[in-house]
Each structure stands twice: as C-alpha cells, then as structure tokens.
Amino acid sequence: MKLPDGPQTPSLLQTLHLIAQPTKFLDNCTQRYGDPFTARVLGFNSPPVVFFSSPQAIQEIFAAPAKQFDFKKATHVFQPLMGDHSVVLQEGRSHQRQRQLLMTPFHGDRLRTYGKLICEITEQVISEWAAGSTLLIHDCMPEITLQIILQVVFGLDPGPRYFQLKELLGALLDDVTTPLYSSLFFFPPLQRDLGPWSPWGHFLRRRQQIDRLIYAEIQERRCQNDAGRTDILSLLMAAEDDAGQPMTDMELRDQLVSLLLLGYETTAAVLSWIFHLIHASPQVLQKLRAELGALGDVANPEGIVQLPYLTAVCQETLRIYPIGMICVPRMVKEPVAVAGYEFDAGTILVPCIYLAHRRSQVYPHPECFRPERFEAQKYSPYEYLPFGGGSRGCIGMAFSMYEMKLVVGTILSHFELLPANDRPVQPVRRGITLVPSGGVPMKVKQQLQPSRLAIFR
Predict the structure, then answer these.
(1) Which residues lie closer than 8 Å to 71 by C-beta, 6 or more apart?
(2) Which residues pair with 331 in a beta bridge?
(3) Tens digits of per-residue pLDDT, 215-240?
(4) Of 77-81, 136-140, 155-159, 284-288, minimum mean pLDDT range
C-alpha cells in the first residue's frame, strides 16, 4: 500500500505540532504535500493518519459501509471524558440505537420550546454589562452556553446542585482545554493517578465529583417521574428504542457529558468568532442590524432564527472556524479505496472540515468573511460540513445553530459594541476547537432604547 505523501518527522513531534498549532500544521501540510496527505499525529508510534479535503473524497468516505471502519479505536482519546457509552464511541447497531434515542429532543419542532429560555439566559448574563465598560466576549460566551446546557439540556433550576455542577463543569472544561491536559489525552502512558495534585489524578477526582451530581439528578428525576418536563435529560429518560428499552443511568451520564463537551466550549468559541468577524466588517454589521431592526417590537425567538442574513452570518463563521476541525476519524478494518488510493487495515482516515472549507475551488478568496456566499449559493454536504456528516454527523447541529442565532440576535438587540483595540486576531487551539486570540475585547458603547429591549418580551 502506497500512502499519500506527508511529513517524515517523528510522530511525537507531529503530534505536538498539531496540538500546539493545528491550523498552521494543516495549512503547511496541504501546501507542501497536497490533498490528501499522511501524518502521524496520535502520539507515540502513531498509525498513519490520512487527511482529506476534496468533496469527492469526503463523499466516498461517508458512503463507505460502516463495517469497514473501527470508530472506537480512532476516537479513543475522548473515552476518559465522554465514557464508554457515548454515541461518539459506539459502532454498528449500538450507534444506531443511541442516535435514534438522541434524535427525539433535538427534532426541529422541539427546539421551539427552548427559544424563550435561551433568550432569557442571554439577557440575564448581559444585564450586568454597563455602558462605557470593556469586556472580553470570550469570557461572556461560555457563561451563556454553560447556563443553557445546565437549564435546557440537564433541566436544572438554579439551586445547590445547579451551582455545584456549574462550578465543577466550568473548572473541568477550563482544565481539559489547556495544552497540558489536552496532551494527556493523546498520550495514554501519561494517564497515571499519582494523587490529587497530579494532572491526571486531579482530572479523575473532579470527574468523580461531577458524576456523583449527575447520577443524583438522574435518580431524583426517576423518582419524580414528571411526564410534563421538556428538558433534554427528561426526554432522553423517556425515550425507548425499538425493543422498548430506555437508556441506563450510565448511558444517560455519558450522553449528557458528551453533549456538554460538544456544545459548551465549541458553541462559545463560534459565538466569539461571530462577534469578532461582524465587528471587523462594518458593512456586515450594518446589514445585520438593519435585518434585526426590521423585525419590530413584536418579534419573538422564532422570528430571530428565521432571519436569512443572520443565518448566513452564522454559516460563514462556521465555514471559516467550524465547531471542530475534523470529522470523526475512521480506522480502516478491511481494505477500502478512497481518492484513488487503497488503504489497508490500521490506517486512519480523517475528513478535514477546516481544509474542506478553505478550498479556493469551492470558496473563492476563502480567507475572506463573506456571508453573502450563503445567500447566493447552496453547498453540498461534502463541501460544507461544519458539524461533520454521513452517519456520524453531529446530532445537536440544529440546536447549536438555533442557540447561536438567538444569542447573537439577543445581544445585538440590547447593546451596541465596539472593538476595544485593533490588534490582529489569530486562531488559538482550546480543547477540540479554535478560539480567537485576545478573547475579543469589546467596549460597551450604549444600551439600546427600551423599545428595542422589548423585542424578546
């Protein structure tokens, strides 16, 4: 088997380069070796990892029978966080079952029940902003997205358990998105519990505290048996598979933590990018404000999410800085042909979202922020795939888009913001996503008039 060309440096160095400077690593490899290219970026003695960005190759990978791939071995780095039962780590019938159970609360019709609460949470967080003050957008967005997860996904009302989980989850996610903790997940030999002050021991103890609170909430919810609840945890507890079996407590825990990890920092990062990009593009901001203003004072959350230009702004931001840089990796179990190559067992295939979204053949001047692209053209699911695709696409895609549009619409309807400085902004890795360097400092110029504040009342 002849693999596509790629860097020949030791796998450890390649792994550290990808962890520290993911966009630079991917850009350099594409420029030097073309598409596809082979790297070794899964720690010591890494198997070959082949990155693809062409729509044709991505379509071939998505269309290949799932039985040809081992998804669990290719995604083992997530196991300590998400747990053995996470939908991300499941295969075959087990994966299909988990997806079926998870689809119910994320159906489009269900989203409308969450709109008012998402707006209220956003309003509550930004109510502390004062005209003339300076704030970091990337400090504010995680506060909003974590509260949305706790109240909409977990169904928790503010109280002792809510605030304990909020503190522990925020601290855990702050830890695991630092370079040190991120590196531990790529190098299993470093995952040693040497006591509470060791990095891995600290992680394990905090995870145990979180699990104790989650299981207590699940047990309490089972005792209450309240059929009228509409939060995602309650809907997951009520869901049954084709055999009439519900999720176990362990399955529920792993799905909740997976939803948290995939929807907290990632969504906060995209929101930070949106505010940076629109305020760096005055014409875009003006057009967006005009669209929001045209809703009038009787607008509601559903009016916000249907705005076409706001949707295009979110889509273009996700093109440049997608939720994740890659789709779910696939380890080949039996020979598979992709892009003219024959790959043997043990090779890992990675459709690369970041590179696919920057192909000049598909997106002229791909580095430019142009929401109008999405008003003028509809892209195929192999050209535009910010939430992955195929049978492993993100289940929370619709919820994430819904949430982003409501948060952006709420903030722009309440405040006028200005960039606090003109320093260049670069993408910086934080966990599994990219965040803007500097945190997007903004000056709160003014709070908009009460007539505009009534927009969500």
Answers:
(1) 89, 90, 91, 95, 328, 329, 330, 331, 392
(2) 70, 348
(3) 999 999 999 888 888 889 898 888 88
(4) 77-81
Q: Does the pLDDT at position 457 exceed 60?
A: no
**Where does residue 295 rank: exposed (0-12), middle (13-18), buried (19+ CB within 10 A)?**
middle
Helix 249-263, helix 265-279: angle, nearest 10: 20
Q: Which residues contact 191 (CB under 8 A, 6 or more apart)?
A: 80, 184, 185, 200
In angstroms, rounded to a whole number, what is the distance separating the alpha carbons of residues 71 and 351?
13
Residue type, 259: L
**Token pair 């934080």 in the structure block, residue:** 430
Nearest of 283, 320, 294 to residue 434 by alpha carbon: 320
Give the separation between CA 32 and CA 47, rounded to whole angstroms.
21
Q: Report domain extents, the chain.
A: 11-456
* Residue recorded with tokens 């076409």: 308
Picking from 275, 271, 255, 206, the residue whose alpha carbon sits closest to that of residue 433 is: 271
Query: What pTM was estimated for this model as a whole?
Result: 0.90
C-beta atoms surrounding 42 within 10 Å: 21
Strands of the sheet containing 134-136, edge to edge, are 134-136, 441-447, 415-419
- Cα–Cα–Cα angle for 19, 20, 21, nearest 5°? 100
How wide is the angle at C-alpha 263 spanned by C-alphas 291 and 150, nearest 5°? 100
Query: Is the CB of residue 56 less than 8 Å from the CB of residue 29?
Result: no
Please give, one letter per residue, the 3-state secondary structure of 192-242: CCCCCCCHHHHHHHHHHHHHHHHHHHHHHHHHHCCCCCCCHHHHHHHCCCC
Work out the pLDDT band at 449, boundaries 50, 70, 90: low
Q: What is the tens place of the pLDDT at every residue in 162-178? A: 999 889 888 887 777 77
Q: Which fold has domain 11-456?
A: Cytochrome p450 (1.10.630)
